[in-house]
Amino acid sequence: MKKYDFVHLHVHTEYNLLDGAIRIDSLLQRVSAYGMDAVSITDHGTMFGVLDFYKKAKNLNIKPIIGCEFYIAPRTIEDKTKQDYKGLTHLLILAENHEGYKNLCKLASIAQLKGFYYKPIIDKKLLKEHSKGLIGLSACLDGEIPKHIIKGNIKKADESALNFLEIFGANNFFLEIQNTGIDGQDYVNLALTDMGKRLSIPIVATNDCHYLDKEDAKAHDILLCIQTGKTVNEKDRLQFATDQLYFKSPQEMYNSFKDYPDSLANTIKIADRCNIEFDLNTHHFPRIETKANETVELLFEKKVYEGFKKRLAYIKQANTNFDEKIYEERLKKEISIINDMGFASYFLIVSDFIGFSKDNKIPVGPGRGSAPSSLVVYSLGITDLDPIKYGLIFERFLNPARKSMPDIDVDFCINGREEVFKYVVNKYGGGDYVAQIITFGKLTSRMVIRDVGRALEIPLSEVDVIAKMLPDVINISLEAAINQEPKLKELAEKKPEIAELLNICKVLEGLPRHASTHAAGVVISDKPLFEYLPLYCGKNDEVTTQFTTQFDSKSVQKIGLIQFDFLGLNNLTAIAETLFLIEKQGKTPPDLLRINMKDDKTYKLLSSGDTTGVFQLESSGMKELLIKLKPQCFDDIIALVALYRPGPIDSGMLHDFVERKHGRQKVEYSVQELEPILKETYGVIVYQEQVMKIAGVLANYSMSDADDLRKAIGSKEPDRLAKHREKFIQGAVNNGIEKKVAENLFELLEEFGGYVFSKSHAAAYTLIGYQTAYLKANFPAEFMAILLKHVRYDYDYVQKILDECKMNNIPIVLPTINESSMECEVKDDKIYLGLFYITKKDMVVQLIKEILENKEDKLITKNIIDKMISLINQQSYSIEKEDFIAALKKEVGRDSILDKYLTEIFINVVVD
Fold it and tell me: Which end of the chain is more exposed for a tag (fewer CB within 10 A), N or C?
């Protein structure tokens, strides 16, 4: 061993939420600066940062040592009393090999899912069952052995040490000595060293690192205050009585333990033994049930052709002149690529849960992202747009030149998404195989100012002033904010407490603050998930029926697990409810996948800008644009959805599109080959697919290479663009295009290509927009009634809708006690406001329910009236309360007077 060789084996990173303040990037930079070649991650009770740590360490040729500091129950994880919680001890565990990593994941999962009681807890029985491939260290002063030593019970300490030695096995358990400046540490170190000699258990030196530099001790103390909801001046709070829990240099560790050279040498021995390699190149697809002698690929092909046959029948009905051969060749090509890339099972699973959704009348979106570009996806019923009809390119979705996972995000009705998720859990192995994905909230610049200010007991009014001084720039750092806002710097110079606040905030800013559940991500595995990663329980007080991964979305995908995104879209819910309301009136609800895409009423509505409640088309700017453009076909609306963004607006693309459509600006093409590609958008490059087609037609690009060009333009990478520039110009020249014209064309792609949008996504979302516009144009009362339901707590919006109803001659009937339901209803093309509209903030919901229960005999009891009067007395109204109460008492049993006063007093909107 070299004089100062040493490896830190006890390190708490930023993923040790609100306890570790060591950022992984900074940690690894410091390891390199110290000339060390290995380091560990041992966060308390979780493994959140393991893969992030692993990848970054590997990139810097630093050996990542994977571990966790566990909380050990004094009895078992089933015993959950305050006394048991007080008796918790710490134990540091490192994974020696892949079997050890899997056991570490299993223990970390059990600690969260079954053992959680204020902390994630395991017990010695579990430890013994899952000890293979693990190395144990006795931990800090909160370890079981040190605690016995501090109490003076050496016999108990010896028994504990021998117990752990039995659990882990010879040479797999070490006694951990530290020099952290905490009272009692020297005494414990001497006792541990003596114990090691007596019991033949090796000692190892660690430092229990919680922050990177000694100067960060104060910031870490504040972090503990944030974690516990305490302030610095409160007594009996969690606090470390030392400033030595930083990432010490090898020389500092040598100086501390030069009398115990074996303890330093053992850090190297342990590090040499710990060897884990993650497989980051293999996808672990969920298992698909197949018949005997049937492969997943054959089943996939069979399902695709079955679906294609159904789609073909509709395509023939809608367009008798279509070329079936084009479809068959495209389908054959896509099937071949998907099977060659090994992705068949992915498509089968997505098709399966979407099929379940449709079979159970749970609304599903027509597609989103690049998925509508695939004819296979369309044939499987995953999307509802014919990609060939809309000129969509398969390689925009799945590029065979780069083996990356397909990404099919799915929109579900808000009310049915949970049912689909439960189906997936039950179908694909239960909670051991299916989980949601974790995500982490961070201490953003404004949040950290408020959190730290609270911990330092700086008055809230002062903290708010500082937080509001930050420039309104997304993700701006405090350092950048201080540089941009001189008042912040001036304030810090005048007030030392503000300077301290900002300095602490700089240390803590951006650290993970809490764990939560990814809004859409679901992972499905081929094996129990803990064989790949640990699981996490979101609630702190009980075991839930469904869990999340401890790795975030990127890490989940990096280790080869398959993620599916279940998104909720309120508009799908509103569409479904509108169709139900239409049917309730005795009308025939339209089949929205078969509606007339040239409906006059719909285009009249769109051209008038009457698009309140219409998906993607209801902003004031979009309304103005619709009035200017006056769309006449579905393609016009797709283009608007793609163009209505800051880039195309600022660059003039949107203006050119409108002017050219109306003939006020001439449409010109620098070469004739551009006309068939850009004709639908009046010569303006609007879509990413158009960029790809231009490269293919004019410069002989394959669609795979054209997709790479699209990405290069979007990312504006100079080296990558330079290569494409040369390739594009040469290809165009080879096609007979003058070099100068080719150069101008590439410059045009560079200039406007960065603003273009995915046509597949625009078309799919425009379809939802058109469907909502169609419903509003053809079933206005039903559509507006459901819209009122969905925005009932936004009183300004409610008033806006009612004003529009008046403008469009849709009658509104005020709520009445004996005639109204809770929600809005439609009768004879009139909207009857629901009883929800006679309350602010649900003030009388329970009362209304009681009234509804008494509707049949039209009896409103004195008890109900008394309750109503009591509620009214708590509020302030313009009408004299005494008059109202007197009228109620006089008119008990006469519903008309109740209706009159209820609508006058409680109605939230004014209807003339």
Answer: C
